[in-house]
Amino acid sequence: MPATWGVGLTGVAGPDAQDDHPPGTLSLGISGPSGTSVTRPEASGDRWQIRLGAVDATVSGLLTRLGSQAAL
């Protein structure tokens, strides 16, 4: 299916590290008409708080990109 925007998110929610990456390590990719950006936001807390932080970072990042796209 064709899409204008794409979002990819991965990370470590914990409670243990994975491949030497501590809980709260995230990677976020957002792709849109102006290109692709990759960021490494961080989240802290327990597993649930890290998951919520990951969602917050994703939605905030997408809204930022949408806002900057609208300004073009």
Structure description:
This protein is of the alpha+beta class. Helix content is 33%, strand content 25%. It has 1 helix and 3 strands, in the order βββα. The radius of gyration is 14 Å and the shape is elongated.
What's a concise summary of this model?
By secondary structure, the protein is of the alpha+beta class. Helix content is 33%, strand content 25%. It is built from 1 helix and 3 strands.
Map the helices and strands.
Blueprint: E1 6-11, E2 26-32, E3 35-39, H1 47-70
What key phrases describe this protein's structure?
72 residues; alpha+beta; 33% helix
Number of helices: 1
Strand content: 25-35%
Radius of gyration, whole Å: 14 Å
Total beta strand runs: 3
Structural class: alpha+beta
Question: Could you list the spans in which at least 5 consecutive residues all have pLDDT below 50?
Answer: none
Level of helix content? 25-40%
Mean pLDDT value: 94
Biggest sheet descriptor: 3 strands, antiparallel
Distance N to C terminus? 26 Å
One letter per element, helices H and strands E, the order comes to EEEH
Order of strands in the sheet with the most strands? 1-2-3
Shape category: elongated
